[in-house]
TrEMBL record:
Gene3D superfamilies: Ribonuclease Z/Hydroxyacylglutathione hydrolase-like
Organism per entry: Alkalicoccobacillus gibsonii
Protein name: Metallo-beta-lactamase domain-containing protein
Lineage: Bacteria, Bacillati, Bacillota, Bacilli, Bacillales
Length: 262
């Protein structure tokens, strides 16, 4: 059987909005865009990318604005197209409260996941497997959802997602760190040698230590960076991408969305 999953990294400025779709299912990973975009620009991204056929599972990596702000630009009908949401328990900000209310008002099922361990000073943040799903359509895919322990670093207090098809693998970290993905996800996986596709953590900015040899041993094939030149942090850092000289590297940066048949 030929299994095809399509990874799309939407071109939404310096934010994150990805999807993994097959003929039967769609998983959205984050629904955000650049945090300085105005309402009109956010609406344009929604109308360009969020299609009425998208009856989806939405996974939110963490609650930073650039990973969630498109949710507030969705219409009520579009919110109802989301079957369920899996997210870390949100911080108690007014934006997060508005988003949760929108889901509740449209009866979207919410799975808000606590950290796997409490935040403890001096103790390393870990990732633990909290959900696995097998989508048994024409193109079956296995989905693994990891939750971190508590962290005062918002980028680390998050969810990481890993997908396997018969042909390829996809790792989506949001802004979580390279070394966490290696230690807690890839090193504990089945050790498959099918090509691995990853969206570059933290839009190409600092995101922990990079052990190039480990990434190579896990068959990392392609890195896609969801970023925009307009960011004030000077991401993408060349010091980051230089660690992956064998990899195919792509970036959104106003070039149109990156669609990869995997
Ligand atoms: Zn981000």
């Amino acid at each position: 059987m030929i299994n095809i999953a399509i990874l799309t990294v939407y071109d939404v400025g310096h934010g994150n909005y990805n999807s993994i779709s097959t003929d039967d299912d769609q998983i959205l990973f984050d629904l955000g865009a650049g945090k300085h975009l105005n309402k009109c620009e956010l609406n344009t991204h929604v109308s360009n990318y969020f299609h009425s056929s998208d009856k989806s599972l939405l996974i939110i990596s963490h609650w930073d604005v650039d990973h969630i702000n498109l949710i507030l630009a969705l219409s009520n009908n579009q919110i109802r197209l989301i079957k369920a949401v899996i997210a870390p328990i949100p911080p108690s900000t007014s934006t997060c409260k508005r988003i949760i209310k929108r889901f509740n008002d449209e009866s979207v099922e919410l799975f808000l996941i606590s950290p796997i361990n409490k935040l403890l000073k001096g103790v390393e943040v870990e990732l633990g497997l909290v959900y696995t799903y097998s989508f048994l359509g024409k193109e079956p895919i296995d989905l693994y959802i990891y939750r971190s322990s508590g962290s005062s670093n918002k980028n680390l207090d998050s969810i990481v997602t890993y997908v396997e098809t018969n042909n390829n693998r996809i790792l989506l970290t949001g802004d979580n760190h390279y070394n966490k993905a290696i230690k807690y996800v890839l090193d504990k996986s089945k050790g498959l040698s099918t090509p691995l596709y990853t969206v570059v953590p933290h839009h190409g900015g600092e995101a922990g230590k990079i052990d190039s040899l480990s990434w190579k041993s896990h068959s990392l094939y392609k890195l896609i960076c969801s970023r925009s030149d307009s960011n004030k942090y000077n991401h993408t850092l060349h010091s980051v991408l230089n660690k992956f000289p064998w990899c195919v590297v792509e970036e959104t940066n106003g070039t149109g969305s990156k669609i990869n048949v995997v």
